[in-house]
Design a protein that fits this description.
The complex is a heterodimer of chains A (204) and B (99). With 204 residues, chain A is an all-beta fold. Chain A has strands at 41-44, 49-52, 60-63, 70-73, 81-83, 91-93, 99-107, 116-127, 134-140, 143-150, 159-168, 173-180, 186-189, 198-203. Chain A folds into two domains: 1-75, no CATH class; 81-203, Jelly Rolls (Sandwich), CATH 2.60.120.760. In chain A, strands 5, 6, 8, 11, 13 and 14 form a six-stranded antiparallel sheet that branches. In chain A, strands 7-12-9-10 form a four-stranded antiparallel sheet, with no helix packed on it. A two-stranded antiparallel sheet of chain A has the order 1-2. Chain B is α+β, with helices and mostly antiparallel strands. In chain B, strand 4 (63-67) and strand 5 (74-78) form a beta hairpin. Chain B is globular. Classes of the chains: A mainly beta (204), B alpha+beta (99). Chain A binds chain B through residues 89-103, 105, 126-129, 156, 173, 175, 180, 182-185, 187, 189, 191-195, and chain B through 11-14, 16-17, 20-21, 24, 35-38, 41-48, 52, 56, 64, 66-70, 77, 79, 81-82.
């Protein structure tokens, strides 16, 4: 039976309070009937109750972008795609045009919602005898998304550098490349002796 | 033109630059007057006991060559810094003999 009273005439104005015969409080615990789908939840838009259908498995309930209502969203992928230093080796090149740094590639996460990835690249390098400028870049598919130049002041000593940026979390391939302006050997260090170069993509 | 080969060498974080200098020095001697970075380039992945070495001798002016380490395809990029390798191209056995 609906709130109309089952044929007994229009339901008079009343409040759902703890006072009997004025409607009483709605008993939501498996008693009150409403035209909702299984798993739905309700919220108010300020004028009337609204139904929010249940989301898909693993989605989370958050406030929408306008800050006016709840919505289901797919959270960022758990655990970032990353390259770890343990599997990598030091890499040397004399190339004046960018070449791939062996094994420094990863597949970016695919994330709905904000759909962004924060890229963090921390590197260490050393050069040979002649002074030179070493160019490093992160390439997303075929597009350079960030770059830097490292010029170690003294031969044989390690120099640190970093690159950070935000890109779309769209499953593209990300790789690190390097080159040297004057063709003098430079070695990107990773994977041994406590030298921690790494490239990480965090879904945000 | 790509020559890719491996050399059984061991180095550490502290000695890998010397290791690179040793490998590059031998190849430079073999290639004579050609200039590293201009007529060719060398890349080395210092894997323990199995150093991977890429030696690219450039076939044309202004065309740089390298290997896509994911797909293994040759990447060709235009660069005015690149000059064609001159002289006799060493054979695989000549390259291997210097290590």
């Amino acid at each position: 039976m609906g709130f109309g009273g089952g044929g007994g005439g229009a339901l008079p104005n009343h409040q759902h309070t703890s006072i009997p015969l004025t409607g009483g409080p709605l008993d939501f615990a498996n008693t009150t009937i409403a035209s909702l789908s299984a798993g739905s939840t309700t919220f108010s838009n300020g004028a009337a109750l609204q139904e929010l259908l249940i989301g898909t498995p693993a989605q989370a309930l958050v406030v929408n972008g306008a800050g006016t209502a709840p919505e289901w969203v797919t959270p960022a992928a758990g655990g970032a795609s990353s390259v770890t230093i343990g599997d990598l080796a030091n890499f040397t090149t004399t190339s004046v045009v960018e070449v791939d740094i062996t094994n420094y590639s990863l597949t970016l996460p695919t994330v709905s919602g904000s759909g962004n990835c924060f890229l963090i690249f921390v590197g260490t390098m050393a050069r040979s005898g002649a002074s030179d400028a070493y160019y490093y870049a992160l390439v997303k598919d075929a597009t350079t998304v960030t770059s830097t130049t490292c010029e170690p002041s003294t031969a044989g000593y390690n120099e640190n550098f970093s690159m950070n940026t935000v890109v779309d979390a769209d499953g593209d391939t990300l790789k690190a490349v390097m080159s040297v302006a004057g063709g003098n050997a430079g070695t990107f260090k990773s994977g041994s002796g406590g030298i921690y170069s790494s490239m990480t993509a965090f879904a945000v | 033109m790509k020559h890719k080969f491996t050399v059984k060498k061991t180095c550490t974080e502290k000695t890998c630059q010397e290791c690179a200098d040793d490998i590059i020095g031998k190849i430079k001697t073999l290639l004579g007057d050609n200039i590293s970075g201009v007529n060719y380039h060398i890349s080395i992945n210092h894997v323990e006991n199995k150093h991977a070495i890429w030696l690219f001798l450039y076939n044309k002016d202004s065309v740089h060559e390298s290997e896509n380490t994911i797909t293994k395809e040759i990447i060709k990029q235009k660069s005015d810094k690149i000059k064609k390798f001159s002289g006799t191209i060493p054979t695989e056995s000549e390259i291997n003999s210097i290590f």
